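Input:
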Amino acid sequence: MAKSGVASRPRGATSTGAATRQALVEAAIETLKSEGFAGTSARAIATRAGCNQALVFYHFGSVVDLLLAALDQVGTRRMQHYRAALGEVTTPAGLAAVAADVFREDMDTGDVAVLVEMIAGSSSTPGLGAEVAARIAPWREFAQSALEAGLSGSPLGSVLPLGEFSHAAVALYLGLEMLSHLDGDRSRATALFDRALQVASLLDAFTTSPPVPAAKEHP
Amino acid sequence: MAKSGVASRPRGATSTGAATRQALVEAAIETLKSEGFAGTSARAIATRAGCNQALVFYHFGSVVDLLLAALDQVGTRRMQHYRAALGEVTTPAGLAAVAADVFREDMDTGDVAVLVEMIAGSSSTPGLGAEVAARIAPWREFAQSALEAGLSGSPLGSVLPLGEFSHAAVALYLGLEMLSHLDGDRSRATALFDRALQVASLLDAFTTSPPVPAAKEHP
DNA sequence: GTCTATACTTGGATAGAC
DNA sequence: GTCTATCCAAGTATAGAC
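Output:
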């Protein structure tokens, strides 16, 4: 009911405040990445957003609610990107290649660190755990559909227990991010994805891939 | 220097203070498990230990130093237990059975949650990351020797890149704990270990190996 | 060694001026 | 919508009595 239409805002004013709202979300994300859950206070966020601490409570009511909004943002952002990257993946090697790519990006952006910090931080705030869990669930579903897509051509697809594998995939992803972030060394994780690509390519070779209309990739 | 010998303590006195020191470490562990890194303050720990908040600083100098002592304690404790459980494992199925057992225990005790909280909490305190990383390293080494032991009889042992796999194993372990702890649902993780046991048993069957003593217990 | 008391800092949250 | 000012709770850490 508030937040209503058209917003006849005065000349030159800094928009409707939606801009600062967005700035706060973005600042919350960055603060979670670099300072962790324990270091992400209303003051720290506001400073990074270049605005006043009180605005956190005006726009979001509380710090944790802002943090959840940040988690939502990073979630939908990454999910869109993952879906696009998954694109026309139909083979194990294709899946592995995309996974390696995407993981490398996630190391660079640090987006997954936001997830990790929110999960670990959940223990300290009553009720937060359930909220975070609800926002993690889609990732498991996505992982499963990715596995299905990548193994659709392979006999493995109908044999492997994809429900359990998808859970493992999410867990592994989070664990790798956590360890890489800890010592700042992503080489171990990338080496692992390289290896996965090798194995997947081997799988491809064993699978008679009949149609596969020579992809529409462009160089 | 300090902490010197023999401590001719008065009759009936509560030992030399080593007892409260230990109580503080134990309380720190429990607080990390239930309140998370962000919720683990000197006051919270002292309350749980049944002593005064000032003793944290008397015995450990700072909260983070106590937390690191707690991490050490949980680390050596679990490492001892893991080594014992690994015992005479020489086959994939044996390894999988032990791993499932041990993970189930870790879910119950929550010891791995301490690791996870410390890793995630590292971001918020300068210098803590390196300390924690140093204490994680032994786990990767242990995982590797466990894999070597479990695959010693199998041709897989000489083919698989154990260095990379051990890193993945640690990451997976941490990730599974994190997710299980989040929604309080350990069924997904245990289902996964059950599945691993099936696969490992299959591997055993393909490997002509001498009579092997069966796993110690089964449901 | 352990406690009480206290100094100082930071954080969450609200009221009110602009 | 945004800022200043402020209240209050909680945290780290130290000093000093017992």
